Fold this sequence. Notes:
The chain is of the alpha/beta class. It contains twelve helices and eleven strands. The strands form two sheets. Strands 7-6-8-9-10-11 form a six-stranded mixed β-sheet, sandwiched between helices. Helix 8 (183-196) links the parallel strand 6 and strand 7 (205-206). The longest helix has 16 residues, at 74-89.
Amino acid sequence: xxxxxxxxxxxxxxxxxxxxxxxxxxxxxxxxxxxxxxxxxxxxxxxxxxxxxxxxxxxxxxxxxxxxxxxxxxxxxxxxxxxxxxxxxxxxxxxxxxxxxxxxxxxxxxxxxxxxxxxxxxxxxxxxxxxxxxxxxxxxxxxxxxxxxxxxxxxxxxxxxxxxxxxxxxxxxxxxxxxxxxxxxxxxxxxxxxxxxxxxxxxxxxxxxxxxxxxxxxxxxxxxxxxxxxxxxxxxxxxxxxxxxxxxxxxxxxxxxxxxxxxxxxxxxxxxxxxxxxxxxxxxxxxxxxxxxxxxxxxxxxxxxxxxxxxxxxxxxxxxx
Length: 321
């Protein structure tokens, strides 16, 4: 049998379709013996309700809130665009997405997804009775699902790329954090440390994901230590890194950074950086909405494993917006 239907359940339980429907929707007026037969048939057949069809028949609407930092940030801009595009694709499912900045007041909704929010904000959402899905960076506490890559593995991957680039020779890799307060940044640094070891990985500098601060601190670090052979940019602010690599020409370090944005794509094409580890934001947003819809329907969201993509200048995908 393919996907069993409610008609199959009714037939197996020896009851009418309307009786099976009343049991499924908890509307009462059904004898206990019939209830037990329907429930047993559901279990035996592995019946799963088509929530989309059921919600459409009831004209059920979903109200979701997506809290994404605003500002001139390539990756967060890609996340916002992905939410808007996914909202249009799912208009037939009666899903409304309120896209808000993490500094804006909370809004009543069926479920919220947060990107770049601190723990206090997540705690405030859960205290208000709003289920929370965390995107990109995981967080402890009363959230219902995490959608994103394994950042520890991503850091190990970056470390392995530096190992390959140095061909077993001595390495002096400078990690550049956005903030040590962000779990995804800490996990990436820990992963890179596991592979490279403290002897090859220098103490990290933190640039607060700010291009101006990135340029100033990185320029000073390269001046103070001319022996730096690699850079691992863990967060954002890479528009401050890329011009420095252009100025150094062929004497630049090996560079690994995160997120395929218009700026990082152009830098790859121009040979100013070497590798981009991308977490595929459009896929993350789609899976986050799947999880939110499941939570709103009273179901446990399915586990999600996002495998990051590794881009060199030779395997870049089509143009990104």
